[in-house]
Amino acid sequence: MPNSAINSGHVDLILQATEIGHELKNIIHFPRNTGIDNDGTMPRETYQGIIKQLKARRNVDFSLYKENTILRRIERRMTSLKIHHSADYLAYLQDNKEEINYLFNDMLIGVTSFFRDPRAFDNLQRELANYIQNKSNKSLRFWCVACSTGEEPYTLAIILSEILGDKIDEYKIQIFATDIDQNSINFARLGVYPETALNFIPRTIKNKYFLLNSEQYELIKPIKSKVIFSVHDVNNDPPFLRLDLITCRNLMIYFTVELQRQILPMFHYALNPKGLLMLGQSESIGVFQEQYRPLSKTGKIYETLFVGKQLPPERKTSRGISLTTNNMKELKPILTSQHNRNKVDAELTNIIADTLREFVLPNAILLNENQDIIFTQGDNALLVRPTGLPSNNIFKNLHPQLSIDLRSAFHNIQNGQKVADTGYQSFKLNDENVWVKLILMTIEREGPLGRLTLIFSQIELPENIPLLTTDKQETSNQAIALEQQRLLAKTKEQLQNVIEELETSNEEMQSMNEELQSSNEELQSSNEELETTNEELQSTNEELQTAYAELRMAYEEREHQRIELDRLKVDLEHSNTLQHEAERSAQMGSWFWDLTTRKLEWSNGCYELFGLDKEVFHPSYEAFIGLASGEYRSRLEEQLTNLLHNRATQPFIFEALDVDRNISIMSLEAVVSFNDLKQATRVMGTIRDITHSVMKEKEQVVYKDTITYLLNNTLTASFVLDIDKLQIEYINAAFQKLLGYSEVVINALADEKLFTLFNTKDAIVFKGIVDKVSRSTVGECVPGKYAIKPKDSNVFMNVYANHTVYELNDTTGLPQKMLVTLFAAD
């Protein structure tokens, strides 16, 4: 191990074991006075000198990397070399070329692994599968930026293999993996990794895509062949084009905001429409919200949005060095002497600009590099709001008659022309014929806005156009001829623009052809490796056939299990539907309480009983208690406690509040399960809304009490008859006085005995009246006249009688008892 470390060339000191402790103590107490100022930065001249040395020797510009990160790496190298001052270290760099390599390698923080952040790659696999399914062709191009030792691009190849399966050979796949470190690229090309690099990979992935080779794991050839490695500086070199996916994870955290705002537009230009961009967990798209749409916030996966024409982003130069103190001292007298004059000039300039903006060119539109509207001024009638998804692209929001001429003017602007216009065009605007011209100007800006385009709208009435103000026919013909000449010239100009765009596309195709040629060389070298491994593939073919047969059997078994699961799922859904309908018709719901996890679950019926939204309300013990009203809360809590101790009486009736604060009467019943220690483990129960039945029962009691009171206090003879039993259940005092029967005697006359009170003819009349009342409604009165035999008399007494419903059957809802009032007819 020590010899291997020494041979790697990355060891700073080679010491005996007895000397290591003393040297560590020296490093800990090494003075940190490295020439850093009190504000936490290195002197600017020294810092720029070190950056220039790295640029000159390794052709990598670190000027737009975060300075704190660069300073820490420089300080680390100074500590290793025991150099106290940064100026001395700059001199040491200039005299020792090897130290540039050590510093450069120290700048590179190659932290990577297979499936780093598995949840993010799960999201990527899902979004990538959707993208491939909607893709019109079978060509896939990925770019893995800052790939380090290659774990991430190989992870992309494995994910692709999992998505495409047996169809992977139908696709043309290219995964470009780039980094600025040649050593990392050389290591990644081998595709051989120690066992520790595969610790967090699922066993199924390891067995499927890796081969054990001399105590190390090597990726299988089909995966290695999908990845093309090359040295590439994303800050300086041109990007790969027509890409479907770019992964740039945990690289931009080392960049300044300025460099980040150069890289993201470059990625946007390199990606296909609706292409995918994957960033690290600590990175985001920042201000480029209109260029990217988030697909997965947790996975940091974005989809590119394209509006208008796609233009290559401009690269900004590195930040310059600020003026020195001596320069400022030389400029100060000049600035002081001209201060008052400049102030007056600025005020007069503002007066002129405000007047022009108000009276001459009141309508202005400001565009960014993507031709999106970022600011408008004035009430511009030429702007329209399109239907569908909102867009700020100028061509989506401008009057369609001006689109072609505007594109031509944009082409002139892009070719270096500072000011361009569309020429006057005549069309109808707001039911009025007008002549319209757009004037375009470019504005160069540093920082996040970049290059801007300013558009002024000039709208003129026909009478304000000099050539159209006369009524002469000859002048009108001349105007038509001039307009035709202008349109012809405009058409020629637009045709020339199309030709130039085609030439530009041809140049891009030529650069892509060179890229393909360089890839062809790598493919030729890979072809030789494929020829050498052909014999090994032939020898393992029989093993693969056997494994395929086993996999086929496993697949069929899995398919059978899937079908069975689908059937069980359908049955379960049917059962749930039946349960829901049953609960709804019975106005009840079921609930389950797991005392181990304190989790309370409700059926859909419980949510409907209380009028609660399943997506908003989450049942819990406390929330359940809170549904009871007033004093019933403590009683409900006591009931649940008694249930757990097996001393509760059931059912438990309580009042509850629904979502509208209405009071309902609920009946709760439950069954408790106990373990071997007689401890409650779970509770299953039902809740039923008995408000209607309780209220109906109360109404019946009140009704009966009222009728009883009336019967006992009236002078009219009355009795209550059970229609089904044909038995008189009740007589009042007036009935006893009129006919002489006691309640005991009259109750004994049940069924056919009841008709002994009537003669044969009147018995038939009374039966007809009973039948008619049994089919009547509450409140309907059936009058009648018949004769009744008094007690201890053979002379029948003629009476008039009224017959009404006294009580309904709870089950059938039909009349069950009848009230009869009698009046003597003689």
TrEMBL record:
Residues 35-285 form the CheR-type methyltransferase domain. The lineage of its organism: Bacteria, Pseudomonadati, Pseudomonadota, Gammaproteobacteria, Alteromonadales. Residues 703-743 form the PAS domain. It comes from the Bacteria. This is Protein-glutamate O-methyltransferase. InterPro entries: Bact_Chemotaxis_MeTrfase (IPR050903), CheR_C (IPR022642), CheR_MeTrfase (IPR000780), CheR_N (IPR022641), PAS (IPR000014), PAS-like_dom_sf (IPR035965), SAM-dependent_MTases_sf (IPR029063). Residues 506-539 are annotated as: Disordered. It comes from Shewanella litoralis. Residues 510-527 have a biased composition (Low complexity).
